[in-house]
Amino acid sequence: MNVTQTTAADTCSPVATHAIGLEAASTVAATLKALSDPLRLRMLSAIASDPRGESCVCDLAELADVSQPTVSHHLKVLKDVDVLTSERRGTWVWYRINPTRRSAVTALLDSFAPASVAPWSASADDDQRRPDFDARVTRLAEELAAEVPELDPDVVLTTVRESYTALARSARVTSSLVPLTERFARQRLADLTRDRDASVPQVLFVCVANAGRSQLAAALVNKLAAGRVVARSAGSAPGDVIHPHVRSLLAEIEGDAAAERFPKPLTDDAVRAADVVITMGCGDVCPVIPGVRYDDWAVGDPALASREGVEAIRDDIAGRVRALVDDLLPDHTSPKEQS
Questions:
Q1: Beta bridge mates, 126
Q2: First to last CA, the chain
Q3: Which residues contact 22 (CB under 8 A, 6 or more apart)?
C-alpha cells in the first residue's frame, strides 16, 4: 500500500487574522439580515434619495399596500440595527439615514441597484438574455473619464453609477436607460468641472417632477439668451415622462432638441454649479450653497391644466424669463424691445 507523505510546504496553514472579527461579523450579519426584505430596501432607498434628507412615515406607507403597523415594524427593524434614526414631530415620525451609516447605505444601493433593476426581456421566439448593464455602465464611465482627465476616474465612475441608479428609480421606459445615463452623467460632470469665472451665467430651474414648469423655463432661457446664459432643470421628485402638453410646447420652442429632454433628479452638483437657482412649487428642497442666488417663482402646474392652461403658464414663465435674462445680461435686448 502506498502512503502519501506530506511536507510542511504542502500543509494547509490558514491565517485566522485575515478574517473579519467575530464581533464585527455578528454586527454586519445582523444588519444584512435586517436589510434582507424587499420593502425595507425600498424604504431605505426612498429615504436615501429624498431631497429633503428625510422621509415621513406617511410617505413610506405609500410604497406598499400594507397596514401602518406593518410599516412601523419594518422601520423599527432598520432602526434597531442603527441604519435609521427617527424624530417625532406632532403626529408623524420622520426617518433619516444614520450619518455613521450613510456611506455604507450609499455603497449598498449604488452597487447593487444598477445590476438588479436593469431591464431585460425575452420573447418566445428569441432566447435573448439579460444584458450586463453593470458592465455597460462601467464602460461608459471609462469613456467619460477619458474626456475629463481633470477628474479622478473613481469620481467619474461614482457619478455615472449614481446617475444610472437615480434614473432607474423613476424610468417608465427602461430600454434607453444607458443613453439617458450618458446624457445625465455628462451634465453632472460638466457641473463638477465648471469654471465659474470663465463661464457664462448658469441658471437651474427646479420643480417637483421636472416634467413641466422647469423644463419650459430652461428651454425659454436657452432660446432667448442664445448661448449667453445656460439654463438647466431638475426635479425634487422627478417623474417618468414630460407632460404631453409641455412636450408639444417644447417642440415649438426647441425643435428637434425637445426630443432629448427627460426628467432628471436634483443633485448638489447642479446647485453648486449654478449662479441662480429658481424653485417652482417644490418647496425648500435645494441645499443652500454660498454664492448662489435663490428665487422662487409661483407659477401654475401644467400637470393640472388643460392645453390652453399650459399655454397660459408658458406665457407667464416667458415674461419672468425675459426679466431674468435682462437682469443677467444688462446689454441684452429682448425681442419686444428690438421690434
A1: 123
A2: 108
A3: none
> Counting runs of H as helices and runs of E as strands, what totals does the chain give?
13, 7
Q: For the full predicted model, state whether its pTM sits above 0.85.
A: no
Residue, of 170 and 53, whose pLDDT is higher:
53
Q: How far apart are CA 29 and CA 98, in angstroms?
A: 18
CA distance 169 to 182: 16
Grid cell, residue 43, equals 424604504
In one letter, which amino acid is 84? L
Query: In terms of Cα–Cα distance, which of 220, 184, 222, 177 is closest to 202?
Result: 222
Locate 79 and state its grid cell: 432602526
State pLDDT tens for residues 65-110: 777 778 888 999 999 999 999 988 777 788 998 888 887 887 777 6
H or E segment and range at residue 111: helix 102-117
Contact 81, 34 (CB under 8 A): yes
* Separation between Cα atoms, residue 339 and residue 325, nearest integer Å: 17
Question: What distance in Å separates the CA atoms of residue 167 and residue 224, rounded to the nearest whole number?
Answer: 29
- Cα–Cα distance for residue pair 34/328, rounded to 1 Å: 52
Residue-wise pLDDT for 249-289, tens only, equals 999 999 888 888 889 988 888 999 999 999 998 766 676 77
**How far is C-alpha 278 from the geometric centre of its chain's CA atoms?**
18
In the three-class reduction of DSSP (H, G, I as helix; E, B as strand; rest coil), residue 186 is classed as helix
Bin 13: left if φ > 0, else alpha if -120 < ψ < 50, else beta.
Answer: beta
| Rg, C-alpha atoms of the chain | 25
163, 337, 141: which is closest to 265 by C-alpha?
A: 163
Most confident of the following: 54-63, 198-207, 302-311: 198-207
User: How many other CB atoms are there within 10 angstroms of residue 325's CB atom?
Assistant: 21
Taking a C-beta distance cutoff of 8 angstroms, is the pair 299, 220 a contact? no
Are 156 and 189 contacting, i.e. CB atoms less than 8 angstroms apart?
A: yes
